[in-house]
Design goal:
With 470 residues, the protein is α/β, with parallel strands linked by helices. It folds into 4 domains: 16-140, Rossmann fold (3-Layer(aba) Sandwich), CATH 3.40.50; 159-324, Rossmann fold; 327-403, Helicase, Ruva Protein, domain 3 (Orthogonal Bundle); 407-467, Orthogonal Bundle (Arc Repressor Mutant, subunit A). It is built from 19 helices and 16 strands. It has a 5-stranded parallel beta sheet, with helices on both faces. The protein has a 5-stranded parallel beta sheet with strand order 9-10-13-8-14. Helix 2 runs parallel beside helix 3 (73-83) and helix 17 (428-442) packs across helix 18 (447-454). The longest helix is centred in the first third of the chain and has 32 residues, at 119-150. The relative contact order is 0.06.
Amino acid sequence: MTAPEDKANLPAAHIRVLIVDDDEPHAQAVAESLNRVGYECSVAPSGQRGAQLLESEIYDIVVTDLRMEDFDGLAILRKAKEEIPDAEVILLTGHGSINSAVTAMQHGAYTYLTKPLDIKELRTAVDKASERLRLIRQNAELHRRLDEKFGFEGVIGNSPQMLKIMAQLQQIAPTDSTVLIQGENGTGKDLVARAIHHNSRRKSKPFVPLNISALSAGILESELFGHEPGSFTGAVGRRIGKFEYANGGTLFMDEVGEMPAETQIKLLRVLEDRKISRVGANEQISVNVRLVAATNANLSEAVEKGTFRKDLYYRLNVVNINLPPLRERRQDIPLLIEHFLKDIAIQHGKHIEGMSKGARQAFMAYDWPGNIRQLRNWVERMIVVDTDGFLDSQDLPDELAPLGNDKEESGRALAGKSGADSLVGRPFTEIEKYYIERTLELTGGKREEAAELLGIGERTLYRKIKEYGL
């Protein structure tokens, strides 16, 4: 082959192309034309040889003749998608086979070109396929970097607590171990469950969520295991339960601590035998399901009280993940704000430039009893009612409004009152933040002296400084 042309400005770098054509001189000509513009080309002089190369080598683009005696282009397309799913396939066809080429595109081919082949048209098609691959890979790399820095498939946070949890998720996701996720309402237990599933070998199979607390005992068993016609009043037809529906995938059982005692026994049996029986049926059905359970209750205390079976608890608690409340990982709040600002603004079709410092301080100072769910809802409320494209203190919900002034405004508001009047009707957190701030100013930032004046330990003061973002 002739030497490649200047590759400095070409998109072909690191793109490997396989040309499959039983007309070997034609295949070599195609390879040479692509090699000239920087593509690394291999030639398979038969369909059978092309299939063998696809099994043993990795290619980015496959250019194949549609009509070959031993192994036609449709078979090469199927083989390429089986062995290298993200490879792009370009078919070469005569005018009489265009219908077959269109069928091939419906099955994943990138495009087709007609013979006699126009080399310029071929290069353009390969360039476009190469650019498509580059964008896909850039996007995948961006998501990978974001996951490493900020989260794990939707789990957002860069605090030490969340980084530790993300490392744990990366370890357990590829396994089939049962996982118990514990945490307060709104901490993102469902997102963690989805992250486990979507980073596991089961990701192509169903992820099936079920909230236990929303169902009565009788309905719960039908939801979990299914039922046969006539098995109870109102059971008109056969119903497939969540276990059957999730077969091969993941079943996420939320609020598992609310499960009735009789259902606990049946669930334990399923986990031990990996078989279920529909309500009203005698035969057993084998199931292959990974179970991820979640609860906001303390299950070990429930075991001690006798409201939750000890043996089931041990079955569920193979791997334990404890999600901290948002008030214990405040440094994640700015990241969550940015994520929700972009996501919700797009959802509502609004342009939001950002959030003011005062509004952000209010978010940082609040204790978030509803955790991430509450934060998201309040960001959405602010976006919906906003009229100028910038979220500031006047857009804050009533619960956050007293915390939303900038430092100078907060100081003037409190300084404008005297004695007990300055404390009346003010949230305790704002009062505490204000006096810590003023005391630090008084001591010139010396924490030891400030702690002594405030009557608290230096470590407590340091924690409060971090809490209030001082």
